[in-house]
Amino acid sequence: MTITRPLPIFDPRTVPVLSVDTHLADVPVQQLTPAALRQRFLQPPVWTPERNTEKKFSDRVPALAAVLIPLVMRDELMLLLTERGKNLSTHSGQIAFPGGRTDDSDADAVHTALREADEEIGLPGAHVEVLGTLPHYVTGSAFIVTPVVALIKPGFQLRPNPAEVADVFEVPLRFLMSPANHRRHVFEFEGAQREWLSMPYTSEATDLPTERYIWGATAAMLRNFYRFLAA
After folding, report:
1. Torsions phi, psi of 143, nearest 5?
2. Cα(217)–Cα(53) distance, integer angstroms
3. Which of 69, 87, 110, 211 is deepest in the core (most CB within 10 A)?
4. What is the pLDDT of residues 185-231, one digit of tens each?
5. Is residue 225 one of the residues assigned to a domain?
6. pLDDT tens-digit series, residues 132-150
7. How far apart are the C-alpha atoms of 221 and 106, rounded to whole Å?
8. Residue 102: how many other CB atoms lie within 10 Å
9. Is residue 41 part of a domain?
């Protein structure tokens, strides 16, 4: 059996930017509304995911998982994201969607995503309108992830689980659906190149601006969401 060594611990912010996709068009703002997204999922276009499999860096047995892409219906759609706890064994401190591994009792990927969102951040199901799913994304740690896209009615009160979540915040969907904010990186490890996108966002929600460094699998699934909406 081939043993795959884990990637070394590194700060992705220190990896140089190779390019920025300024040549690609933004998703028009009129397509970033609840009504437009409902219609897009009812009549999906012909499209191809840009990124669906990472290079494997773990000998973990493949496992099913699901994440929720929760779009809060404020004056404009806002994506709800989490910062993972620093104490977690995998991907600690990273920006992520609410979600996790599928349990045997889960009926499907939607059930997994909603259950995990409730367990992680206390997002009440009564506020969630599921629109549909995006194609699977396979992480380097062998999770086969189904992204579940949903609209979220405002007025909820979150209860983040301190054992899993360090913070919860929102990012304008229009920012993430602008390729001018999509940066490409390459990291070389033991002769192999690993490529990823980053979408750093600086929040002005508090007196002290905070950078939210969105990268890796989260950024890749957002890039696929961009391709779905731009098709």
Report:
1. -90, 130
2. 9
3. 69
4. 988 766 667 889 999 999 876 667 888 999 999 999 999 999 999 99
5. yes
6. 999 999 998 889 999 999 9
7. 22
8. 23
9. yes
Tokens representing 154? 């405002």
Secondary structure letter of residue 3 according to DSSP: P
Q: What is the CATH number of the domain that holds 43?
A: 3.90.79.10
Residue 12 domain flag: no
CB 218 within 8 A of CB 94: yes
CA distances from 15 to 57, 145, 184, 187, 210 (A): 19, 26, 10, 7, 20
Q: Which of 166, 171, 109, 170 is nearest to 135 (CA)?
A: 109
Per-residue model confidence as pLDDT tens digits over 217-227? 999 999 999 99
Helices (H), the chain: 34-42, 109-121, 173-176, 216-230
Domain that holds residue 104: 18-230
